[in-house]
């Protein structure tokens, strides 16, 4: 008796696989993998400051800039949080290419930001660490109209940090859920 049940399960499994293969041949363009596309719309800008005895500059996801220690903030109209535009796209599995908008339902994505010590801003041989990346949307909901993701961080300023135009890059990863 056990041999028959194993044989039945094997035959049933083979039949289901054949049915799925037939469905994919009959409807080759019916499978779509949903993706979240992310594009940078505004750079993270800590603004102008005087290092003095050092400290930190914090930039919140809403764009609020504050400081600790001896750092002196100067008027900086361009200081701002980073913003990203998120949108839904689909990957047409039958054709292997991306399409435009996806469905009307929202897609959830987990946002991953850089770890402390992973990002530095540099000016020549001088550098500063960017730590404590933060976003108000760790679980981003991307609807058919897209979504905006704002990212803030903390700049660590050394005492008497040499003046200069410091720049760098960081990565934001969104994992579709």
Written account of the structure:
- The chain folds into 2 domains: 27 residues; 146 residues, no CATH class.
- The longest helix is centred in the first third of the chain and has 25 residues.
- Strands 1, 3, 4, 6, 7, 9, 10 and 12 form an 8-stranded antiparallel sheet that branches. A 3-stranded antiparallel sheet has the order 11-8-13, with no helix packed on it. A two-stranded antiparallel sheet has the order 2-5.
- Helix content is 14%, strand content 44%.
- The protein is mainly beta and 177 residues long.
Descriptive key words:
177 residues, mainly beta, 8-stranded antiparallel beta sheet, 3-stranded antiparallel beta sheet, 1 helix, disordered N terminus
Would you summarize the structure shown here?
The chain is mainly beta and 177 residues long. Helices cover 14% and strands 44% of the residues.
User: What's the shape?
Assistant: elongated
Treating each run of at least 4 consecutive H or I residues as one helix, how many helices?
A: 1
Q: Hey, roughly how much beta strand do the residues contain?
A: 35-45%
End-to-end Cα distance: 44 Å
The number of distinct β-strands equals 13
**Percent helix:** 10-25%
| Poorly predicted tracts of residues | 1-33, 92-102
- What does the largest sheet look like? 8 strands, antiparallel
Task: Give the topology.
Elements: H1 2-26, E1 32-42, E2 49-50, E3 55-59, E4 65-69, E5 72-73, E6 82-92, E7 97-98, E8 107-112, E9 119-123, E10 126-135, E11 139-142, E12 147-157, E13 173-176
Antiparallel strand pairs: 1-6, 2-5, 3-4, 3-12, 6-7, 6-12, 8-11, 8-13, 9-10, 10-12
